[in-house]
C-alpha cells in the first residue's frame, strides 16, 4: 500500500486523485493536510469473499504544528472478478467510513449466488431478518466536528425535497452527534436487485435540544449506482423508500 520512497506530498496527492469522493472531504481538513510533514499508513480492517474484497486503511499525517490528521480510505472491488475495477473512497470521519463499509455488506454484494430454490428461500428469510429493527441501544453523543458532519450529510443528498436552509442553519450549532442504522433490506426493483439502508444522524445542539437527519442510501437507480437521500423525519424517509420499491 505504501511506497517507502514516496514523499508525504506525493502520497497525499495520490490518495486524493484516485478517491471517487475526494470532493466531499471538508475544506478545513484539506487545508490542514497542506502542511503535512510525515505520514503513516496501516490496514484497519478487511473483508474478503468470492464476490467482494474490501479493505479500510488508516492514513495519519503529522502536521507542522505537531498535531495530526487522519484519513480513512475504503478500497473495494469485485472479489475474484478481476474485470471489476477497484474503487477508492476517502473519509475524514471514522464513523462515515464505517457506514460506507456497512453499506457494501448491507447490499448483499458479498452474498454467494444461489442456484436452487431452497437456498433462495433461505436468502429471503435472511432478508426479512435483516429488515427487522435492531434492539435499541443507549444513545451516546460524540463531540466530533458535528456541525461539519451535518453539512456533509446534507451536501451529499440528491433528493429535491431534502431539508431546507433553515434546518442547515439549526445544525450549525450541533456540537455532538450519534449515528444509528435503523433499517437494511435487499429488494427487487424493476427486475434488478437494489439495496436500501436507513440511518438516523442524531445531533445534540448547543441549547441542549436534539434534532435528527434521516439518510436513505440505496441503489434503486437506472444504472445501479449508489444514491443518497436525506429527510427531516423518519416517516418521510420510509415513505420515500416505499415509493421506490412498493414492497419495503
What does this structure look like?
By secondary structure, the protein is α+β, with helices and mostly antiparallel strands. Helix content is 30%, strand content 33%. It has seven helices and eight strands. It has helices spanning 8-18, 27-33, 94-106, 117-131, 146-155, 165-171, 234-245, and strands spanning 36-48, 53-63, 68-77, 87-91, 174-189, 192-205, 210-218, 227-231. The strands form two sheets. It has a four-stranded antiparallel sheet with strand order 1-2-3-4, sandwiched between helices. Strand 1 and strand 2 (53-63) form a beta hairpin. The longest helix has 15 residues, at 117-131. The protein is globular and about 55 Å long. It starts with 7 loop residues before the first helix and ends with a helix. The model is unreliable at 107-134 (pLDDT under 50).
* Order of helix and strand elements from N to C terminus: HHEEEEHHHHEEEEH
User: In percent terms, what proportion of residues is strand?
Assistant: 25-35%
Tally the helices: what do you get?
Answer: 7
Kindly provide the radius of gyration, computed on alpha-carbon positions and rounded to a whole number of angstroms.
19 Å
| Strands, total number | 8
Classification by helices and strands: alpha+beta
Quaternary: single chain
Mean pLDDT across all residues, rounded? 79
Shape estimate? globular
Tell me the helix content: 25-40%
Low-confidence stretches: 107-134
Main beta-sheet strand count, sense and barrel state = 4 strands, antiparallel
The neighbouring-strand order within the major sheet is 1-2-3-4
* N-to-C CA distance: 41 Å
Amino acid at each position: 500500500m505504501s511506497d517507502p520512497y514516496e514523499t508525504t506530498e506525493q502520497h497525499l496527492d495520490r490518495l486524493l486523485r484516485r478517491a471517487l469522493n475526494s470532493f466531499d472531504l471538508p475544506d478545513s481538513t484539506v487545508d490542514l493536510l497542506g502542511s503535512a510533514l510525515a505520514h503513516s499508513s496501516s490496514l484497519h480492517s478487511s473483508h474478503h469473499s468470492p464476490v467482494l474484497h474490501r479493505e479500510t486503511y488508516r492514513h495519519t499525517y503529522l502536521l507542522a504544528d505537531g498535531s495530526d490528521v487522519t484519513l480513512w480510505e475504503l478500497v473495494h472491488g469485485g472479489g475474484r472478478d478481476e474485470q471489476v475495477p477497484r474503487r477508492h473512497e476517502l473519509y475524514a470521519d471514522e464513523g462515515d467510513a464505517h457506514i460506507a463499509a456497512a453499506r457494501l455488506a448491507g447490499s448483499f454484494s458479498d452474498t454467494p449466488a444461489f442456484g436452487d430454490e431452497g437456498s433462495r428461500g433461505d436468502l429471503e428469510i435472511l432478508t426479512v431478518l435483516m429488515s427487522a429493527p435492531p434492539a435499541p441501544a443507549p444513545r451516546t453523543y460524540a463531540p466530533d466536528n458535528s456541525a461539519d458532519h451535518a453539512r456533509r450529510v446534507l451536501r451529499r443528498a440528491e433528493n429535491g425535497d431534502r431539508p431546507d436552509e433553515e434546518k442547515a442553519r439549526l445544525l450549525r450549532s450541533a456540537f455532538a452527534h450519534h449515528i444509528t442504522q435503523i433499517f437494511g433490506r435487499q429488494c427487487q426493483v424493476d427486475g434488478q436487485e437494489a439495496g436500501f439502508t436507513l440511518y438516523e444522524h442524531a445531533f445534540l445542539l448547543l441549547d441542549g435540544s436534539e434534532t435528527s437527519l434521516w439518510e436513505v442510501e440505496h441503489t434503486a437507480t437506472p444504472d445501479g449506482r449508489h444514491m443518497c437521500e436525506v429527510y427531516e423525519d423518519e416517516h418521510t424517509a420510509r415513505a420515500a423508500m416505499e415509493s421506490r420499491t412498493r414492497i419495503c
